[in-house]
TrEMBL record:
It holds the Pfam family IMS. GO terms for cellular component: cytosol. Keywords: Cytoplasm, DNA damage, DNA repair, DNA replication, DNA-binding, DNA-directed DNA polymerase, Magnesium, Metal-binding, Mutator protein, Nucleotidyltransferase, Transferase. Belongs to the DNA polymerase type-Y family. The gene is dinB. GO terms for biological process: DNA repair; DNA-templated DNA replication; error-prone translesion synthesis; SOS response. It is found in: Cytoplasm. One of its GO terms (molecular function) is damaged DNA binding. Its main location: cytoplasm. Its cofactor is Mg(2+). Signal peptide: none annotated. This is DNA polymerase IV. Monomer.
Length: 349
């Protein structure tokens, strides 16, 4: 999706359309999403709100509504399943689709992507961009090229040429720190990366070296996994005003415990390890876990354990975020079926 949270806000509130908009807290915190109008001024997600306001003085801040974003995400996902059962969600606003065998029998992957994007716009009301290629890595890279409201096909015959010309910071999996390190090594494009040996890349980047060696050659064998095994379930809350009173913290732990049980009951999931997450006003973070031999069962179990973990915190400072997550779950591994991609790429561009 294009600027998903911001786009939903502009869809729901017409007075925000065409405005420089940021989803997040204005007085503190970070930008969760920025409209394209705001991005023209250099506002980006994960940017501190204070800096965003400096870059764009007329920036409008709105509080996030995650329940609404999840609702819209589910509507979009239903559209995906009209075309293929092989859907791997990455987040509320992004997913991989393997359309090797699609339910509509649409021969061209390009036409299929256009139809899905058209339906999202007509039925949901926001725009989406797509990347189409022979593997997940290339599709992900392609999805960012013609944003917003566009798509890019990287045809099998164009893969190597495309990757060699691609700036290294555009490679999915290469973050700012890694890109800066590569620049110091005179690696600025895929072509620069490609001349490095596997041994060289492994010595410099460790296990990631093999990943970089393969993807610059168009090799990425990760399958689309429609049933990703859930390893944890988490709930958390960022507070618009820092919590300084222990009674307030306990009240929030009770609310989080109830929300966690609600989520778990819908999925029939249980777990044995509970983790408390605390983020302080200075953005420092503390986590502590407790594992028991039997599964947690009730709100009371979670709440009492969370209170005990709270007592282990290293110091007393104002709290900006609290979270509870459950892991060591009762979910079982499911084997995925490997499918060879044989997608026709008619009319690519």
């Amino acid at each position: 999706m294009d600027a998903f949270y911001a786009s939903v806000e502009q869809m729901d509130f017409p007075e925000l359309r065409g405005k420089a908009l940021a989803v997040g807290g204005e007085t503190r915190g970070v930008v969760a999403a920025a409209s394209y109008e705001a991005r023209k001024f250099g506002v980006r997600s994960a940017m501190p709100s204070s800096i965003a306001k400096q870059k764009c003085p007329h920036l409008i801040f709105v509080k996030p509504r995650f329940a609404r974003y999840k609702e819209i995400s589910q509507q979009i996902r239903k559209i995906f399943y009209d075309y293929t059962d092989l859907v791997e969600p990455l987040s509320l606003d992004e997913a991989y689709l393997d359309v090797t065998e699609n339910k509509k029998n649409i021969a061209s992957a390009n036409d299929l992507a256009r139809e899905i994007r058209k339906r999202i716009y007509e039925e949901v009301g926001i725009t989406a961009s797509a990347g189409i290629s022979i593997n997940k890595f290339l599709a992900k890279v392609g999805s960012d090229i013609n944003k917003p409201n566009g798509q890019k096909t990287i045809h099998p015959t164009q893969v190597l040429e495309f990757l060699e010309a691609l700036p290294i910071e555009k490679f999915y999996g290469v973050g700012k720190v890694t890109a800066a390190k590569m620049h110091t090594l005179k690696i600025f494009t895929g072509a620069d990366l490609k001349i490095r040996s596997l041994e060289d890349l492994t010595n410099i980047f460790g296990k990631s070296g093999l990943f970089y060696y393969n993807v610059v050659r168009g090799i990425h064998t990760s399958e689309v996994k429609p049933n990703r095994i859930q390893k944890s379930v988490a709930v958390e809350e960022t507070f618009w005003e820092n919590l300084g009173d222990e009674a307030e913290v306990f009240e929030q732990l009770q609310i989080l415990s109830e929300e966690l049980v609600n989520r778990l009951s819908k999925k029939e999931i249980k777990g044995k390890t509970l983790t408390l997450k605390i983020k302080y006003e200075d953005f420092s973070q503390f986590t502590r876990s407790n594992t028991q031999e039997i599964y947690f069962e009730s709100v009371g179990d979670y709440y009492l354990t969370a209170k005990n973990l709270w007592q282990l915190r290293p110091y007393d400072k104002a709290i900006r975020l609290l979270g509870l997550s459950l892991s060591n779950l009762n979910t079982n591994e499911k084997k995925q079926v490997s499918v060879q991609l044989k997608i026709p790429f008619e009319g690519f561009y």
